[in-house]
Amino acid sequence: MSQVGHQTARALLRRLAIEQAECRIPSVRAAIVRDGEIAWQAGRGQVDGRPPEPGTQYRIGSITKSVVAVTVMRLRDEGLIDLLEPIGKHLPDTRFGEVTIAQLLSHTGGLTAEPPTGWWERTPGIEMADLLSRVGPGEVKHRPGRRYHYSNLGFSLLGELVARLRGTPWAQVARTEVLGPLGMTGTTTRPRPPHATGYAVHPYADVLLPEPEHDAGAMAPAGQLWSTTTDLARWAAFVAGDTGGVLSPGTLAEMREPATVADGDAWTSGYGLGLQLTRHAGRRLAGHTGSMPGFLATVWADPADGVGVLFLANTTSGLRPGLLTDLLDILDEHEPRLPQEWTPAGADPALLALTGLWHWGPAPYLLRLLPGGGLSLEPVRGAGRASRFVPQDDGTWLGLDGYYAGETLRVAADHLDLNTFIFTRDPYDPAEPVPGGVDDWH
Fold first, then answer.
1. Whether residue 186 sits in one domain with residue 289
2. Which parts of the sequence belong to the DUF7586 domain (predicted)?
């Protein structure tokens, strides 16, 4: 199944085949999504003596966290929680209740990465009450909010938050409120046929070791789900912006915003609210990696381009991190997206009269009309504060991004009032209400 050309499909398949052969992967499937539809998919290797199919299940590990995060954001949008609330308000039996829900979602709560149990990914899970009884002050490794520190434990608490507020297990909430509405019927908490068996590949010989698989119990929200190429493609389309009514576009955009940077000054990877972020070749990708014993998976989506890419594999380790970005690069090289045709649009004469040159003090800015009726204010010389604005019912304009995100722009006939800053047609026009007054130029 492919919507790309033959040469493109061949180049993509060759890259996937190289990965499977050189990294010795028992089986792997990959797909590219464009505009909500699968544009290309392929598989290599075998599952039970057959090539893996679009409906073959693989464990997706920490991609589960993103699904849980969506259920949390739905609670927020319904007014049942506030992201700035401490988790202890809703889970009073935790012993680090000052950590906020937002910090847990963004891995900035300072909690330990792994729970104080045996290797939770390879052993049967324990109940939440047992887990909470083991978690004490020693599991707080950093001051909450200080730094990014990935925490599987934190997402087990978020799953419990969802379960307590909904009165039903987190997995049932995810199935009812997220997976079902998105049509992801092949995504389950335990494997169903056909599914791949998880393997470890011997580092020095071409032999396999089956990895164990258990119900993770209280830790299940951190990595329990199994899924298919078809379902994960739908998830990629969701992250890219096709929300299917599960979340508002604004809430999904909030999840994709960088809450923290994982690699300091380099800023090649970061984390939003339940979504990992990475930057590559001018793209800002959102999604998540997944790893459980015997399985690796990753899904990335670029909402600016409406494209997503994913893979599922049954190996504990071995895949190279550049596989998916290589597939995107091949797509861009062989079939770059054409820009949308420009077409003229009508404009309110009053708004049209606002366009053109304005000045913040001596600095020139351009005000433009955007498609859909928004405004863009940006410096003429490129250095300065640029933001877009959308109209509000009271006649003001709300900043969408940049320095003025969330701030109010008020438009008068002869000046702009942007959160106390006065923009005038002429630099420091003495006829306008510039705070502090204006002397003569000399």
1. yes
2. 348-425
Q: What is the mean pLDDT of residues 26-51?
A: 97
Which residue(s) pair with 369 in the sheet? 375
Averaged over 54-83, what is the pLDDT?
Answer: 98
Residues 300 and 409 in one domain: no
Assess whether 129 and 80 both reside in one domain.
Answer: yes
Residue 318 has phi, psi (to 5 degrees) of: 125, -30
Return the number of other C-beta atoms located less than 10 Å from residue 130's C-beta.
12
Rounded to an integer, what is the distance from CA 213 to the centroid of its chain?
27
At 114-134, the pLDDT tens digits run 999 999 999 999 999 999 999
Compute, in degrees rounded to 10, the torsion defined by CA atoms 302, 325, 59, 16.
130
Asked if 45 and 356 touch (Cβ cutoff 8 Å), the reply is no
pLDDT for the residue 381: 87
Q: What's at 65, amino acid-wise? A: K
Residue 401 is part of which domain span? 349-424
Torsion sign over Cα 214, 217, 222, 224 = positive
Cut 0.90: pTM above it: yes
Tell me which residue of 56, 60, 53 sits closest to 236, measured CA to CA.
Answer: 60
Token readout for 286 is: 């959102």
